[in-house]
Amino acid sequence: MKKISALFLLFAVLGSLAGCNTVDGFGKDVQNVGEKMQDASKK
Questions:
Q1: What is the pLDDT of residue 5?
Q2: Which letter, b or e, does each residue of 15-29 get, where b requires 16 or more Cβ atoms within 10 Å of its Cβ?
């Protein structure tokens, strides 16, 4: 039972770390699009 709990905890931690990287990358993409729109509106 302890092995199953430990594996579940390990996968949960790894999944949350992968999710953070994905959200961080998505936020940077959105920021870049916003900056391009601002640059285009200034012209």
A1: 84
A2: eeeeeeeeeeeeeee
Q: How far apart are CA 36 and CA 43, in angstroms?
A: 11
DSSP state of 1: -
Distance CA 15, CA 8 (A): 10
Could you tell me the two tokens for 29?
């993409």
40's CB contacts (< 8 A; 6+ apart) are none
pTM of this structure: 0.50
